[in-house]
Amino acid sequence: MEMQNFSHLPNTEADRRKMLEKIGVGSLEELLNNAVPSEIQFAGKLPIPDGLSDVDVQKLLEKLASMNAGSGMKDFIGGGAYDMYVPAAVDEISGRPEFYTAYTPYQPEVSQGTLTAIFEFQSMICGLTGMDVANASMYDGASATAEAAILAIHKTGRKRILYSQGLNPLYLEVVRTYLHGFDAELVPVPIKDGITDVDALKKLADENTACFILQNPNFFGIVEDGTQFDEIIHSSGGLYVVVVADPTSLGILRPPGEYNADVVAGEGQQFGNYLYFGGPYLGFFAAKKEFVRSMPGRIIGATKDVDGRRGFVMVFQTREQHIRRARATSNICTNQQLCALRATVYLALLGAQGFYAISKLLFNRAHYLADKLTEIDGVELLFDAPFFREFAIKLPRKADEIIDELSQVGILAGLNVGKLIPSMDDVLLVAVSDKYGKNDMDEFVVAMRNAL
Asked: Domains of the chain by range and CATH?
């Protein structure tokens, strides 16, 4: 074996000879022959091409990437995952080795950088949601929602979960999976004209109800009036859980804490994270202070060291590997720290005014695009209700046909709602982005008109 092929190894030929002499063998081949039977050794040379220069590697990777059907397409798909612009500073800072390769900060004396970043993330989530406390992050918005339902079961001793039919169907499936074994009952609260039916909730909420789950804005992009549900669910003794699958809405909408939510669960992917072919994503979980000891995951807190200097430590970790299993609130094993770091950098770069500006931009673009699309014959809004940055339109043809046709001209037209709700196969859920401006939206409208 020619060791010069391994130019990345720091040992010199003299170093290798000394090590081989020390263990009593004359060559690396002799060492391997002593350890690996000859009949299972590979004879010959692996069909691996010669190495390339950095420039040639980049060209090759760009060529391979261009073969991706979605490369360069304009993405108007929403439904919980959004193609948002990621500032270069997010990649630069999150890619630093002290963050990129860091593991769980069990030793605070050598983990202050990571612990500080988590503490800042928690603080930002509390600020956005209006809640008292947030954890270090969850796997994604769907699992955070499921953990909120489990918290409600534990706190109330009840097993009846009410949920608005405006909840993302994919989130609902994850909730159903998490609750397997709890003998819990999932009860839908219908929507009326795109908005959760308050009268239906009044009839369904009773002394057996653990919680009511409201997504706001809901799956169809509609903005709900969260103040309508507080008294109803709390008067029955249940908890009020609000899911924020699109937290950019919190730049202009009232935070759940202001309408007395007990728990807020959500998805933070659009904060400095790419679509990543579906993951990893970033769930967040916030609650009133009274529920802090029932929250899943870990919480970082501020403290002082023996010299009185401010520092950060892990103050709660109610995980079954770390405490008595019977007292564990969840079996979540980690937090999405690298994704959470990216979100923290993104939000810090924007600041309060920048975040408001992004939210307002998305709101304005969504309403511009909706107005233009509904000028096309046969296209109409599914619901006549206020929306934030995405909206559902009813088409004169099946949505999957339109999606296929527009993909041929470089446009991902939206989410085929029929894939999740079979009765709505002519409904397209469209989301806007800060990446695609007026010209891109006008191009989308022309393509839609031509397809119809």
From this structure: 9-40 (no CATH), 74-85+351-451 (3.90.1150.10), 88-346 (3.40.640.10)
